[in-house]
Design a protein that fits this description.
- The complex is a heterodimer of chains A (474) and B (271).
- Chain A is of the alpha/beta class and 474 residues long.
- Chain A has 3 domains: 6-171, Orthogonal Bundle (Fumarate Reductase Iron-sulfur Protein, Chain B, domain 2), CATH 1.10.1060; 175-336, no CATH class; 342-467, Rossmann fold (3-Layer(aba) Sandwich).
- Chain A is built from 24 helices and 10 strands.
- In chain A, helix 1 (6-12) packs antiparallel against helix 21 (408-415), helix 6 packs across helix 10 and helix 21 packs across helix 23.
- Chain B has 13 helices and no strands.
- The model of chain B is unreliable at 250-257 and 264-271 (pLDDT under 50).
- Classes of the chains: A alpha/beta (474), B mainly alpha (271).
- Chains A and B meet through helix 1, helix 2, helix 3, helix 4 and helix 6 of A and helix 2, helix 3, helix 4, helix 7 and helix 11 of B.
C-alpha cells in the first residue's frame, strides 16, 4: 500500500479550530476540547499521573515496560496509522515512549537522579501537547500487541495517557458531551434518546415486523426476572432498525426471555477510551439496572467496545458479589443456532458478503468464529478479508475517534486507509460490521473512498434468513 | 598487563556476575510480587491463563510467529539471540574456566559450532545495526543506548573469536583478552539496570499485561479525590474550570499556529 500523498496529509491533518481557541487552550490538536485550565499544565499532568499511579494497577506494567522495551520497531508493521502516514511519530513504540519517558524521568529513582544530574527539565508543555496529539492518533486497536516480542501492550499506554490527559481537562469534546449526558443528563444515555422516543421506536419496529414477517415479534420492556438484559449501543435504537429487528426476531425464534430496561438501556461506555472513572460509573449503571429488574445475564448488542467493557470490566467493578455472566448477542445467536433452536435459511443472501472483525471483541479471540459460521450458513457468496480474525485491521475509528466528527478526514484518509483497501480487494457488496462504531466509520470510509459496499450488522442479514416455526408462519 | 587480566577474570568477574544474578533475581521477584499484588487488588480474577501461556511460549519459541512479518529482520534477530545465549555458556574455553574455578561444569559445544555461532552473531549484530540505522521507523525510536548495546555486545564476540583463532603476538593477545574480559564484565554488571533485563523479564510480559488490564474498583473516584476534584469529575468541565480557572494573560502567540507539517518520511525497505 502506498503511503498518503502530501495533499492527503494536509487534508487529513488540517485544523478546524479557530486561532483564538487554540490560543486560549494552547492546544493545537485536531479535535475540539472544552475549555480547561492551561496554567502549569506539566505540573498538573504529573500530579494526575502520580494520583493515578497511587490508586491503580498501572505501575507494574509501566515498570515492566520501561525495563524490557528494546525498541525493535516490529510494531510498525502492525499499525495501520503508521502504514498510511509513514511518519515515525506514528510508530506505536514511539507513541508509548512519550508516556514511558515521563514515567522514567519523574517516577523512578534512577530517572529522578539522572534528571537532577543532567539538568533535564522534565515534562514540558510541548510534550503534553505532543501526547494530546499522539494518543488520539492511536485507535487503541491492540493489533501491535501481537507483534511485540516483549509483550508490550501499547493500547494500555494509550488508555493511561488519555486518562491522565482527561484529568487535566484534555478530552475530545464529542466524548465528554456524550458522557455528561449519560451520567448526569436527563435521558441517561449517550445519544440523548428519551424513554418515550425509545418506546415509540420499538413499537414502530414491532409493527413493521408484523407486516413483513406476519409474526408478532415483541420488544419486552421492563420485564422483571427476565433472563437477559439487552443493552445495544444506544444509537442502534434510532439508526440501526434492521439490526434491532434481527435481534428481536432471534429471541422470538428461540423463545428465551429478554428485556430492555427503561431505567438504563445504553451499552456504550466511552470510559474505555479515556477514563477509568467514567468507565466504572457507567458499568455501575448497568449493574444497577440489572439489579432493579432482577436479571440473570447481561446481553450486549452488536457493539465492540460495549461488549469488551461489559465482559472484561463488569467483573472488575461489580465482581465481589458473584458477577453476572456477560454475553454478546452474536454469541447468543450462534449458540441457539448450534443447539437447533434457531433455524436459518441457507443461501438467503445472494450478494457477496464479507465480515469485518471489530477489534474489541476479536482481538482477545472471543468472537471470531461465531459470526462467520452464521454468515456461511446464510450467504451463498462469502469472502474473507486478509488478514482477518484476531489479526484483523482496525476500521480506523477505534478508541472513540469515530465519535469525533471534526477528525473525519483523518479517519477516512489515514486511519481507515488499509481497511478501505481490504474491503475493495474482497469485491464484496455487503460488509458485515457488528459494531456501532465500526459501522459509522466504515460508512464514512466507503463514502469518502468511493467504494460501493453496503455496511450492515450481522443481525440485519440474519433477519432475512430466520425461519419461524411452520405453524406460526403464514 | 597480567595483573589487569587477573583482576578482570577474578574479582571483577565475580562481582559483575553477582550483580547480574542478584539484580536479575530482584527484577523477577519484584515483577512477580507486583503481579500478585495487582491480582489481589482487582476484583476480577478471570484471566485467560491459557492465552497468556500460549503467547508467552509463542514468543520464547519463535517458530512460525516471527516469520510471518518482517521475515528477514526476524530471522536475523533470532540468530543473533541464539549466538548471544549459547556461546557464553557453552564455549569450550568458558566451560573449562568454570571447571577450574568451581570444580564442576557442563558439557561444552564443539569448537566448530562455537565458531559458527560466533560468526553468525557478529554478522547478525552488524545486520541489526544496519537495519536500525537504515529503517526510518527504527531510527525514529532508537535511543543512544540502542546503538551502544549492539556494539558493546559484539565486542566480546569479536575479541573472543580473534583470541582463539588469529595468530597473535603475546602482547596483542593479552590486549584483546583484556578487552574481552572487561567488556563481558561490563555487560553483566549493567544487565539488570538496562534493557538487557528483558533476558529474564520477557517471559513475564504477557502475564504483566494481562494483570495490568485488571483495574481495581474505585480507582477513578479515589484519583479524583486525591486531585481535589471529588465534586467536579471530568464530565463536568465547567465545575472543574471553577476549581482551576483559565488564565490567558500570558498566552504565547506561537500557540495560535497549528503545528508545522512534517514531510512524510520516505517509506524505506526495512531490514
Amino acid at each position: 500500500m502506498q503511503p498518503i500523498t502530501i495533499e492527503e496529509r494536509q487534508k487529513a491533518f488540517a485544523s478546524v479550530k479557530k486561532p483564538e481557541i487554540i490560543q486560549r487552550q494552547r492546544l493545537p490538536v485536531r479535535y475540539h476540547v472544552e475549555d480547561f485550565c492551561v496554567e502549569d499544565r506539566p505540573r498538573r499532568f504529573l500530579e494526575a499521573f502520580a494520583a493515578i499511579l497511587k490508586h491503580s494497577n498501572y505501575r507494574l506494567a509501566l515498570d515492566h515496560y520501561i525495563r524490557v522495551t528494546a525498541k525493535c520497531a516490529r510494531c510498525s508493521v502492525a499499525c495501520q496509522v503508521y502504514e498510511a502516514t509513514g511518519d515515525r511519530r506514528d510508530v506505536p513504540c514511539y507513541r508509548s515512549e512519550l508516556l514511558l519517558s515521563v514515567y522514567r524521568r519523574h517516577f523512578t529513582v534512577s530517572g529522578v537522579l539522572r534528571g537532577r544530574l543532567l539538568g533535564d527539565p522534565g515534562l514540558t508543555d510541548e510534550k503534553v501537547q505532543e501526547m494530546a496529539d499522539a494518543f488520539y492518533n492511536c485507535t487503541a486497536c491492540r493489533r501491535c500487541h501481537f507483534e511485540c516480542p516483549l509483550g508490550i501492550d501499547h493500547a494500555l499506554i494509550t488508555h493511561l495517557g488519555r486518562y491522565i490527559l482527561s484529568e487535566i481537562g484534555i478530552v475530545p469534546r464529542a466524548l465528554a458531551v456524550s458522557v455528561r449526558e449519560q451520567l448526569i443528563g436527563k435521558t441517561g444515555n449517550t445519544s440523548a434518546i428519551p424513554v418515550p422516543a425509545l418506546l415509540d421506536s420499538l413499537e414502530f419496529l414491532s409493527e413493521s415486523m408484523q407486516e413483513e414477517l406476519g409474526v408478532d415479534v415483541p420488544f419486552p420492556i421492563d420485564q422483571e426476572g427476565a433472563e437477559y438484559l439487552f443493552l445495544p449501543a444506544v444509537s442502534d435504537f434510532m439508526m440501526e432498525a434492521d439490526t434491532l429487528m434481527g435481534n428481536a426476531a432471534v429471541f422470538r425464534a428461540t423463545g428465551d426471555s429478554w428485556t430492555i430496561g427503561t431505567g438504563y438501556y445504553d451499552g456504550i461506555n466511552y470510559g474505555l477510551f479515556y477514563s477509568d472513572q467514567v468507565m466504572e460509573h457507567v458499568v455501575k449503571k448497568i449493574h444497577a439496572e440489572a439489579d432493579r429488574l432482577k436479571i440473570k445475564k447481561i446481553l450486549i448488542g452488536e457493539c465492540g467496545h460495549a461488549s469488551r467493557v461489559a465482559k472484561y470490566f463488569y467483573p472488575s467493578y461489580c465482581g465481589q458479589r458473584p458477577a453476572r455472566p456477560v454475553v454478546n448477542i452474536m454469541e447468543y445467536t450462534w449458540q441457539a443456532w448450534k443447539q437447533g433452536r434457531l433455524k436459518l435459511k441457507p443461501g438467503a443472501i445472494a450478494e457477496r458478503v464479507t465480515y469485518h472483525d471489530p477489534c474489541n471483541i476479536a482481538r482477545p479471540g472471543w468472537i471470531v468464529q461465531q459470526p462467520r459460521e452464521l454468515l456461511k450458513a446464510i450467504c451463498s457468496d462469502y469472502a474473507e478479508m486478509v488478514p482477518n480474525g484476531r489479526r484483523n485491521i482496525c476500521c480506523g475509528g477505534g478508541g472513540g475517534t469515530v465519535s469525533i466528527d471534526e477528525i473525519r478526514p483523518f479517519r477516512t484518509t489515514v486511519g481507515g486507509r488499509s481497511k478501505a483497501e481490504q474491503i475493495r480487494a474482497t469485491g464484496a457488496k455487503i460488509c458485515v460490521a457488528p459494531c456501532a462504531n465500526c459501522k459509522k466509520q466504515l460508512r464514512e470510509l466507503m463514502e469518502d473512498n468511493g467504494i460501493d459496499c453496503q455496511i450492515v450488522g450481522l443481525h440485519d442479514l440474519l433477519y432475512k434468513a430466520i425461519i419461524f416455526d411452520s405453524k406460526e408462519t403464514p | 598487563m597480567n595483573f589487569w587480566l587477573q583482576l578482570g577474570r577474578g574479582p571483577l568477574f565475580a562481582a559483575a556476575f553477582a550483580v547480574m544474578v542478584l539484580g536479575l533475581a530482584r527484577l523477577v521477584l519484584l515483577t512477580l510480587f507486583g503481579v500478585a499484588e495487582n491480582y489481589r487488588r482487582s476484583w476480577d480474577k478471570i484471566i485467560n491463563w491459557k492465552e497468556v501461556a500460549f503467547q508467552t511460549t509463542n514468543w520464547l519459541v519463535p517458530v512460525g510467529r516471527l516469520w510471518r512479518r518482517r521475515p528477514v529482520y526476524s530471522t536475523v534477530s533470532v540468530l543473533f539471540h541464539a549466538g548471544l545465549l549459547l556461546v557464553p555458556f557453552f564455549a569450550a574455553a568458558h566451560v573449562l574456566l568454570w571447571r577450574r574455578s568451581v570444580g564442576f561444569a557442563w558439557g561444552a559445544m564443539p569448537q566448530r559450532a562455537t565458531d559458527v555461532l560466533t560468526i553468525i552473531a557478529l554478522l547478525a549484530g552488524a545486520a541489526l545495526f544496519i537495519g536500525r540505522v537504515g529503517s526510518s521507523a527504527s531510527r525514529g525510536i532508537s535511543r543512544p543506548q540502542e546503538y551502544f548495546w549492539l556494539i558493546l555486545l559484539l565486542v566480546p564476540f569479536a575479541t573472543g573469536f580473534l583470541c582463539s583463532h588469529a595468530a597473535l603476538t603475546a602482547k596483542a593477545y593479552q590486549t584483546l583478552m583484556i578487552l574481552h574480559v572487561y567488556s563481558a564484565d561490563l555487560i553483566m554488571a549493567l544487565m539488570p539496570f538496562t534493557k538487557l533485563a528483558h533476558c529474564v523479564l520477557a517471559p513475564l510480559s504477557q502475564t504483566v499485561t494481562a494483570v495490568a488490564w485488571k483495574f481495581p474498583p474505585g480507582t477513578g473516584d479515589r484519583v479524583a479525590a486525591t486531585l481535589g476534584c471529588a465534586d467536579c469529575p471530568t464530565w463536568l468541565p465547567k465545575s472543574r474550570l471553577e476549581r482551576f480557572p483559565i488564565d490567558v494573560s500570558d498566552a504565547r502567540p506561537e500557540m495560535t499556529q497549528p503545528p508545522p507539517e512534517v514531510e512524510p518520511a520516505a517509506q524505506e525497505v526495512t531490514a
